[in-house]
Amino acid sequence: MRPGHHWLFKFGMRGMELRTSCEKKFNLTRRSWEDYKGTQFYNGQQALVVERWLNQVQEDASGLTFEEWNPAQDAVTSQPPVAMLINLSELRAAGFKLKEMIPPALEAAARGSRCRYGAGLR
Q: Which end of the chain is more exposed for a tag (fewer CB within 10 A), N or C?
């Protein structure tokens, strides 16, 4: 948009039973791509679900004010709705170091220790 302009986003969940932000992993042949919900993906890339986009407010000189972006508000009615997705490789290209994490509450169960209360990790 302009130099120094920032967006923030919050990952969403693909499904409560899966507890992951990855909607689809692409296993394609070499040098091929797939148009998935309006975004181009190549072999090995992943589509991550975004729950909320926050846009930096231009009027705030401190740059600390953000407002939630509503994709329906800016949508062209003749086009299909915009998917709230981001390509994992775009985050890596921007220097993000991503690692899949197990929530601390499930970490002990994931290592195989006995769970005293509630259900174990499946």
A: C
